[in-house]
Amino acid sequence: MRKRTFVVAITGASGAAYAVRLVEVLLSAGCDVHLTISAAAQTVLKQELNLSVDLENFQTSSLRLDAGQSVQDPKLRRIRELAGISSEASTVLAIPIGSPGTLSYHHYRDLQSPIASGSFLTDGMVICPCSGGTLSAIVHGTTANLIHRAAEVHLKEHRKLILVPRETPLSLPLLENMRRAVKAGAVLLPAMPGFYHGVKNVQDLIDFIVSRICDQLGVPNELIHRWGT
Predict the structure, then answer these.
(1) CB-CB neighbours of 87 under 10 Å
(2) Helices (DSSP H) in the chain: which residue ranges?
(3) Closest C-alpha to 21, from 48, 58, 54
(4) How does strand 161-165 pair with strand 32-37?
(5) Bridge partners of residue 105, in order along the sequence
(6) Separation CA 129–CA 13 (nearest Å)
(7) What is the pLDDT of residues 95-144, one digit of tens each?
(8) d(Cα 157, Cα 118) in Å, to the nearest integer?
(9) Tens digit of pLDDT for each residue in 4-26?
């Protein structure tokens, strides 16, 4: 049986921490992740998280996904339990053979990548964060890189496409592009964290957005305390 497979694209808007945490959570949940990172996102990852990512020779360790946090983070341990993954399994974030989820990297200019084709089966795609330029390219069909093409594939195949913009204030062109995206079938999930779940630190705010993304993808999680529970 094929494991659940998701495409995650990181573009050049602010909010790189959301993307790294999303990848971490999806892998912990036993999902396979196909990751692509734009050139602008490379700059943002360095600026916001001090992560030096080489797009030409990508190393998983550059995103610090192998720091052993899956053992220390009770939220990730719970996600593993919800996914039916034994706590005895090898550390998720090290991505070795036998880990619950696997990470595959695709260069943003590689239009020969599997995720550029509708025949490559996935369970959805998340662009997190989604820059205004990426949003514009998607809704106007001006495919210039793998991220745009993969998004186009998910729309045409009627698969879940989640766009996570992080911009303020919002201009009229940006709002119009958001409207076009929703009309085309995408889910607009702005990085607007709530504060009702007992926020104690920035990580709680990040987890709020990642939890809502996972809800849209159908990935069980208890990253936040839900309203009314």
Answers:
(1) 9
(2) 16-28, 39-49, 69-72, 74-82, 132-140, 146-156, 172-184, 202-217
(3) 48
(4) unpaired
(5) 35
(6) 6
(7) 433 357 899 999 999 999 999 999 999 999 999 999 999 999 999 999 99
(8) 7
(9) 999 999 999 999 999 999 999 99
